[in-house]
Amino acid sequence: MSYLLVLYHSRTDSVKNMAYEISDAAQHAGIDVKIRCFSDDSDDLVVTIDDLKNCAGLAFGSPTRFGMMASPAKQFWETTSDLWLAGQLIDKPAAVFTSSSSQHGGNESTLLSMALPLLHHGMLLCGVPYDVPALSATQTGGTPYGASHVSGLTNSSNLSQDEIAICQSVGNRLAKLIKQLQ
User: Fold this and answer.
1) What is the DSSP letter of 41?
2) Cα Rg, the chain, nearest whole Å
3) Which of 32, 35, 159, 182 could form a Cys-Cys staple with 163, CB 3.0–4.6 A?
4) Does the model's pTM come out above 0.70?
5) How many domains does the chain have?
C-alpha cells in the first residue's frame, strides 16, 4: 500500500492544522495518507521508522525554534541512519512546512534546515511554485521553500485562507508526484 506520510511536531496546533490541510488535499487527489507526530503529546500516532520506510512520499512539518526545526524532529531524523545506508527514501517526493510567531521568525531558514535530512536521504524535494496564486497574495505565511504559517503575537493556530491554499497546493503536488512516480 502506498501512502503519503504527513509527519509533524506541533505544540500549539498551528503545524498540526497545516498537516491536516496537506493531508485532506492529498486524500482528495486520491492518495492514502498516514498522519504521524514525533511525540505522544498529540492525538495522532507517534511515527515509527517503518512508517517512514514504507511511505511513497513525505510532508514534514515542525514549528520554528530559533530558525531551526524543533528538537523532537531533529532527534527522530538522527535515528534514520539505517534507512539512509539502505537508500530506502531515495527518489520519494517530499515537502516541508513550518510555523512561527512572526513574519521574520525564521520560517525560511527552518524550512531550509528541514530539507537537509531529506536531501541526504535522496528524496525529491518540492517547494511551492509561483503558479499558486496565494503565494504571491499572502500577507501571512507562505514561501517557495514550503508552506508556512504566522501565528502572530496571540499565537493563533487559525490558518489564513492563503495559508490554507498553500498547504492544499503542497498536498496536491505531492499526490500528483506520487502517482507519476508509481
Assistant:
1) S
2) 15
3) 159
4) yes
5) 1
Q: Which helix (H) or strand (E) holds 35?
A: strand 32-37
What CATH number did the domain enclosing 157 receive?
Answer: 3.40.50.360
> What interhelical angle do 161-181 and 14-28 show, nearest 10?
50
Cell numbers linked to 182: 508509481
Q: Are 145 and 113 in contact (CB under 8 A)?
A: no
Residue located via cell numbers 497546493: 169
Residues 1-33 pLDDT 10s: 699 999 999 988 999 999 999 999 999 999 999
Side-chain-side CA neighbours of residue 63 (13 Å): 20
Cα–Cα distance, 142 to 135 (Å, whole number): 6
Side-chain-side CA neighbours of 32 within 13 Å: the count stands at 8
